[in-house]
């Protein structure tokens, strides 16, 4: 079997139940989930190198959940029996609460960064927000009821874990300073 089919050469692709342009809102949404999954893959490499086994396990589970959600978003015929676990947002909330306790309290915005893994987790956070914005544009009756809550929690998860990683690695968050104050 060849990897190329040539069926997309005219700018169209196949959703489950419908052939559409590659710029279709659903393709944009699940394509962004695929991009996010690749970003997470890099974070897994960094987390493995830094020996954060718990985070590697979380991220790997999230990658599988994103494949499930992407499959759900690619199906225009489905209105129930979703692949994504309907309790996935609550599971993320538990993880967020756990990791949030590892980092010191914050009273201001922080800049993405710290260490390499934390910076990559912030990239994951921002790509998740884009996926969320794109998913909002889909017909609400044709996406899992948990899709938007899941993506909303997932970006919070990445923020909490990025801060926890910096704390574990002895790195301080980079605090935002108003631009006018920086010029002095």
UniProtKB/TrEMBL annotation:
Pfam families: Cob_adeno_trans (PF01923). Coiled coil: none annotated. Keywords: ATP-binding, Cobalamin biosynthesis, Nucleotide-binding, Transferase. GO terms for molecular function: ATP binding; corrinoid adenosyltransferase activity. Residues 3-164 form the Cobalamin adenosyltransferase-like domain. Its EC number is 2.5.1.17. It is an enzyme of class 2 (transferase). One of its GO terms (biological process) is cobalamin biosynthetic process. The keyword Cell membrane does not apply. It catalyses: 2 cob(II)yrinate a,c diamide + reduced [electron-transfer flavoprotein] + 2 ATP = 2 adenosylcob(III)yrinate a,c-diamide + 2 triphosphate + oxidized [electron-transfer flavoprotein] + 3 H(+); 2 cob(II)alamin + reduced [electron-transfer flavoprotein] + 2 ATP = 2 adenosylcob(III)alamin + 2 triphosphate + oxidized [electron-transfer flavoprotein] + 3 H(+). Pathway: Cofactor biosynthesis; adenosylcobalamin biosynthesis; adenosylcobalamin from cob(II)yrinate a,c-diamide: step 2/7. Belongs to the Cob(I)alamin adenosyltransferase family. NCBIfam families: PduO_Nterm (TIGR00636). Homotrimer. This is Corrinoid adenosyltransferase. It comes from Salipaludibacillus agaradhaerens.
């Amino acid at each position: 079997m060849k990897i190329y089919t040539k069926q997309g050469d005219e700018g169209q692709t196949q959703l489950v139940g419908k052939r559409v342009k590659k710029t279709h809102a659903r393709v944009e949404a699940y394509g962004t989930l695929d991009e996010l999954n690749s970003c997470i893959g890099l974070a897994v490499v960094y987390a493995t190198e830094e020996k954060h086994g718990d985070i590697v396990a979380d991220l790997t589970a999230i990658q599988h959940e994103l494949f499930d959600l992407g499959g759900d978003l690619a199906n225009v015929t489905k209105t129930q029996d979703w692949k994504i676990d309907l309790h996935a947002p609550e599971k993320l909330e538990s993880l967020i609460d756990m990791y949030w306790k590892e980092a010191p309290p914050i009273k201001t915005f922080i800049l993405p960064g710290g260490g390499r893994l934390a910076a990559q987790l912030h990239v994951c956070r921002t790509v998740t927000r884009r996926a969320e914005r794109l998913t909002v544009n889909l017909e609400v009756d044709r996406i899992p009821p948990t899709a938007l809550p899941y993506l909303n929690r997932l970006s919070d998860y990445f923020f909490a874990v990025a801060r926890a990683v910096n704390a574990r690695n002895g790195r301080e968050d980079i605090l935002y300073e108003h631009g006018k104050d920086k010029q002095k």
